[in-house]
Design goal:
The complex is a heterotrimer of chains A (344), B (283) and C (257). Chain A has 344 residues and is α/β, with parallel strands linked by helices. Chain A folds into 2 domains: 34-113 and 225-335, Periplasmic binding protein-like II (D-Maltodextrin-Binding Protein, domain 2); 122-219, 3-Layer(aba) Sandwich (D-Maltodextrin-Binding Protein, domain 2). Chain A contains 15 helices and 10 strands. Helices cover 72% and strands 0% of the residues of chain B. Chain B is flat, with a radius of gyration of 29 Å. Chain C has 257 residues and is α/β, with parallel strands linked by helices. Classes of the chains: A alpha/beta (344), B mainly alpha (283), C alpha/beta (257). Chains in contact: A-B, B-C. The interface between A and B is medium-sized, with 31 and 20 residues.
Chain lengths: 344, 283, 257
């Protein structure tokens, strides 16, 4: 009796809801979608999310996505910790690890990765330093190196370079300049000697006379997991299904992106469409003709299936600990929830 | 006393009450209050009570570690700074910037303030400029300072210099304006030279205002330290705070902020001593 | 050294404050200038000291100042004008420092002048520690230290209470008898004028003109209180001034310059 009446009541309700929904907007699907907020930076490295949104992959998974744009990765990590944003993509930084240690966030998948054969991050030298003999990373000893902040990915990269070249870390002077723009300015005017940066920026500024490329990051940190997908610990433990659906859609976007711009297996028309799609989000303030080369130049592999290189992440965590930037007590399990994607 | 001596008054003077004893009452007291009384222990007690409550809140989990670390954690971060010897490197770098920037800013500010106070041309020419530039947050000019003075010590010292310059100019010129003109007239009437009048009458007369300006500019210098060390600083209390912020190491952040606060208290105390010594002629 | 004023006139804006003042101050003479408020007597004193210039007329000095005079025309101000951050000694020292004297010579002068004014015990005191009367004694000592030819005293006792004023008048009389200084003494207090002046110049109200010059030839030391003749002089002076004083009293502040 009760069962029946409940069911009939539901039916009536659903019918009314459907009727109203149809009357208001005929295309709304019957099942209400889960609303998620995705934090993003206007960088090509965030393209997988943009593709998944534009091509309806999120909607296919029943996700109603709203983007929230940030100027830097740091506030995005804090926004996820506070629950204002559900998912984000960013490099592994000291801030991220410390938030993970406090139980606020978890890395759930991989995004951007260095890969041999694909143009990756470049090591650059200022004109003055280059002319004075800084023609290869091997001669970085005694030079100054620009970073945004202590504990940023730039900080990690220069130390990995120093370690591989056998230069004591302390022999390279670090210059924290807070913003990418400030580092570019300092490098152009020769106030710092060297820097590393993602390819689309590197290629653009190395085209001028003030800056010379002197090496590739991929040679020093092979398979470097540059950025990762992360979410709040609450999402990872309480809504694993939601996380899975997000990662599925994200991976579809990544696959399209790789095919069009990284592996270039898709048609030229397909690549052009992809650049146009990304241009809606990245360099939107520039005309398409100017933005297109930057977008193409910036294409680095986004992990298939949001696969995560756990070895690289572990190496990064160990480096942060070796520099006392994060507590020694942090384990890889505190940082990563590896249950969602394949790892290696 | 010259009033006529009626028997009534005579008895009053002899000390007997003019009315029945029952109707006597004391005059109601209406004075008192409105005068600060020195209470030495209340300040530290309030401070200690807040710290204790905070610590208890953190330990019991009422205050989430993500929101605010416990005072003991911040203290632990500070202890690590001391143990690793990093404290002295950070403090040394910051104090050097503060001392150079503030001293230069004060000296130039007093000079400019005197000019404005003494010369009508300087007042007409410089005062509008000072009024226009004073309210600009020096942080906004940081990129320009980097271009002008480089990412080394130059831009950091310049930020602090500019920050302490303007309040000093305003305090000094107001101080000169407030010097008792009758003293200047006295100096002239005794045939003192212009320079003697400035040195022996105007400058000491403006000293109270200059010192209260110094109090303000020193606080501003400490506030600007964090901004100054945003650009290219490897060491410094401000750089340490920025690093803690970017690492989301809130315990270190609080330790750094506490160091700044102690620096502020110390500078305030030093200026208080200087005031007591330089202005000992005041009551 | 004598002081001579010839046809001094002055106006502030539209207001004529002084008209045609002719006056001579002889050596060793105290000339008191009295008049209702706003008659320009302080302005006149500023002309004499060279702190302001009159529109017309001239202020002349006759003869050489006494040997060793550092500042022939020296003021004593109503508000004392002592530097609050300097001690008694330091305040006297201030006016000697610009004259290229050796430190030893300065000390000598200071010691001497403080002794003459009975201030030796107070040389280390700051102005805020001194009573009004003591402050004015310091100001007088400071004035004496530069060996003035003429002392220009601008209501020097007006900021003091009446008992202190009596004491200081006695001091000034004693000082004059020893030093025979020349002085221009501006006051609105008739008793002071009668007590200290060899000559009393009565100014009229705006524009300030000389109405009368009263000479009192009795020696300063002999001018006791309750002296019938001096009281008569004082009464006459009051008679001269009363109507103008009343007019000055009823004037609105904005009209005065």
């Amino acid at each position: 009796m009760t069962k029946l009446s409940k069911r009939s009541m539901l039916k009536t309700l659903a019918a009314t809801a459907l009727a109203t929904a149809c009357a208001l907007a005929p295309v709304v699907p019957a099942a209400a979608a889960d609303k998620v907020t995705v934090g993003a930076l206007r960088f090509t490295s965030h393209a997988a999310s943009f593709v998944a949104f534009e091509r309806g992959y999120f909607a296919d998974e029943g996700l109603e996505v709203e983007f929230k744009f940030f100027q830097a990765a740091q506030p995005m990590a804090v926004a996820i910790a506070s629950g204002d944003v559900d998912f984000g993509v960013t490099a592994i930084s000291g801030g991220l690890i410390n938030l993970a240690q406090k139980g606020a966030i978890k890395v759930v998948g991989g995004a951007l990765q260095e890969e041999p054969g694909v143009d990756g991050q470049m090591i650059l030298a200022s004109r003055a330093a280059f002319d004075a003999g800084l023609t290869s990373p091997a001669t970085l000893a005694g030079k100054s190196f620009g970073i945004t902040q202590t504990g940023s990915s730039f900080h990690y990269m220069i130390h990995k370079i120093a370690d591989k070249e056998g230069i004591p870390r302390s022999e390279i002077t670090l210059r924290p300049l807070q913003k990418v723009g400030a580092v570019i300015g300092a490098l152009k005017t020769g106030q710092i000697d060297a820097w590393t940066i993602v390819p689309h920026i590197a290629k653009a500024i190395a085209a001028g006379p003030e800056i010379e490329p002197i090496g590739m990051i991929a040679d020093y940190i092979p398979d470097y997991q540059v950025t990762t997908v992360f979410t709040s610990t609450a999402n990872a433990s309480d809504k694993p299904d939601l996380v899975k659906r997000f990662l599925t859609a994200f991976a579809k976007g990544a696959a399209d992106f790789n095919a069009a711009l990284v592996d270039k297996t898709a048609s030229a028309q397909e690549a052009e469409d992809m650049v146009r799609l990304i241009h809606k989000y990245v360099y939107a303030d520039r005309p398409f003709e100017k933005a297109a080369p930057s977008i193409r130049n910036g294409a680095m592999r986004i992990n298939e299936g949001a696969r995560l290189n756990l070895t690289s992440v572990t190496d990064q965590l160990e480096w942060f600990q070796s520099e006392n930037l994060v507590p020694a007590s942090v384990t890889i399990d505190m940082l990563v929830d590896a249950s969602f994607v394949e790892t290696d | 006393m010259t009033l006529s001596d009626t028997p009534d008054r005579a008895s009053a003077r002899a000390g007997a009450p003019p009315q029945a004893e029952s109707r006597l009452q004391p005059v109601p007291f209406r004075g008192g209050g409105f005068r600060p009384v020195r209470m030495r222990f209340v300040g530290p007690l309030v401070f200690a009570a807040i710290l204790l409550l905070w610590e208890a809140g953190s330990r019991s989990g009422v205050i989430s570690n993500l929101v605010l670390p416990a005072p003991s954690e911040a203290f632990e971060a500070f202890r690590q700074l001391v143990e690793t010897g990093q404290l002295w490197r950070h403090l040394g770098a910051s104090l050097q910037r503060l001392v150079i920037g503030w001293t230069l800013g004060m000296s130039l500010g007093v000079a400019a303030g005197l000019m404005i106070g003494l010369f009508s041309l300087a007042r007409a020419g410089l005062m509008p400029l000072v009024s226009a530039l004073f309210p600009i947050p020096k942080i906004a000019l940081l990129p320009l300072f980097v271009i002008w003075f480089g990412i080394g010590e130059g831009s950091k010292v310049a930020t602090i210099l500019f920050g302490s310059f303007f309040p000093t100019v305003i305090a000094t010129s107001a101080g000169v304006d407030n010097v008792d003109r009758s003293l200047v007239r006295m100096g002239q009437s005794f045939g003192l030279s212009w320079w003697s009048i400035v040195r022996k009458i105007i400058l000491p007369g403006a000293m109270p205002a200059i010192l209260s300006g110094a109090r303000i500019s020193a606080s501003i210098a400490i506030i600007l330290l964090v901004a100054a060390e945003m650009i290219g600083a490897e060491y410094g209390v401000g750089a340490y705070i920025l690093m803690a912020g970017s690492l989301f190491a809130t315990d270190q952040l609080l330790a750094g902020v506490a160091i700044l606060s102690v620096m502020g208290l110390l500078v305030g105390w030093l200026i208080g001593r200087a005031e007591r010594w330089l202005l000992r002629w005041r009551s | 050294m004598d002081l001579l004023l010839r046809g001094v006139s002055h106006r502030y804006g539209d207001t004529q404050v002084l008209a045609d003042i002719d006056l001579a101050v002889g050596e060793g003479e105290i000339v008191c200038i009295i008049g209702p408020s706003g008659c320009g007597k302080s302005t006149l004193l500023r002309f004499i000291g060279g702190l302001e210039r009159p529109d017309a007329g001239e202020v002349l000095l006759a003869g050489e100042p006494p040997a060793g005079s550092l500042n022939p025309l020296t003021y004593v101000f109503q508000d004392f004008a002592l530097l609050p951050w300097r001690t008694v000694e330091g305040n006297v020292s201030l006016v000697l420092e610009d004259h290229g004297l050796s430190a030893a010579r300065r000390r000598e002068i200071i010691q001497d002048v403080l002794e003459r004014t009975g201030l030796s015990d107070f040389k280390g005191a700051l102005p805020r520690q001194l009573s009004g009367g003591m402050k004015q004694r310091v100001a007088i000592a400071r004035a004496l230290s530069v060996r003035p030819a003429v002392m220009l005293m601008d209501e020097p006792l007006s900021a003091l209470d009446s008992q202190t004023r009596e004491l200081l008048m006695d001091d000034l009389v004693g000082l004059w008898q020893r030093e025979r200084f020349t002085a221009c003494y501006v006051t609105h207090n008739l008793a002071e004028a009668v007590r200290l002046g060899h000559k009393i110049v009565v100014l009229s109200r705006r524009p300030g003109k000389i109405r009368e010059i009263v000479e009192i030839d009795r020696d300063l030391a002999d001018r006791q209180q309750a002296d019938a003749k001096l009281e008569a002089v004082q009464r006459d002076l009051w008679h001269l001034l009363r109507d103008e004083a009343r007019a000055a009293d009823r004037e609105l502040a904005d009209d005065t310059v």
